[in-house]
């Protein structure tokens, strides 16, 4: 069912972020079993700044897209996130032959990308590099994670 958390109580002058994970583009989207996305907020050293959340399994798969349409409530006021923090999205799916859930790819959003409205972010090869040192794009094809951000300010 996922491990989504509710929105934090608002504080005067502070901003909360809701991210709607719309869909992810993958060339083999239709073959992914029970796909979901793990969302975490990490500092430059890869340390969690908020509780990690998992989306429920995707709603549907269509062509080269896995559709989620799920809202994630970031569990910290934007103003309280450390400089250099980033929000990570790890796309995971079940591998029946190996009997475990594998991370297929990941994407991340840095603090300067937080603004209201739609955003598409690039997908990178696993393993997830929380320190953002050795990033390799997943493919040469234009495949992205499609998000929509809503800022809530008191």
Which characteristics define this entry?
single chain; mainly beta; Immunoglobulin-like; 5-stranded antiparallel sheet; phosphatidylinositol binding; Aida_C; AIDA protein; developmental protein
Mean pLDDT, as a whole number?
95
Largest sheet features: 5 strands, antiparallel
The number of distinct β-strands equals 10
Task: Tell me the number of helical segments per DSSP (H or I, 4 or more residues long).
Answer: 0
> Nearest-angstrom radius of gyration?
15 Å
- Return the domain count: 1
Write down the CATH class.
Mainly Beta
- 3D shape: globular
Uncertain residue ranges: none
How much beta, percentage-wise?
Answer: over 45%
* CATH topology type: Immunoglobulin-like
What structural class do you assign from the helix and strand content?
A: mainly beta
- Order of H and E elements: EEEEEEEEEE
Main sheet strand line-up: 4-5-1-10-8
* Gap from first CA to last CA: 31 Å
Helical content (DSSP H or I, runs of 4+): under 10%
Assigned CATH architecture: Sandwich
GO molecular function: phosphatidylinositol binding
Family: Belongs to the AIDA family.
GO cellular component, one term: membrane
InterPro entries: Aida_C, C2_domain_sf
Structure description:
It comes from Phaetusa simplex. InterPro entries: Aida_C (IPR025939), C2_domain_sf (IPR035892). GO terms for molecular function: phosphatidylinositol binding. This is AIDA protein. The chain is mostly beta strands and 154 residues long. The protein has one domain (25-153): Sandwich (Immunoglobulin-like). It is 0% helix and 48% strand. It has no helices and ten strands. The strands form two sheets. Strands 4-5-1-10-8 form a five-stranded antiparallel sheet, with no helix packed on it. A five-stranded antiparallel sheet has the order 3-2-6-7-9, with no helix packed on it.
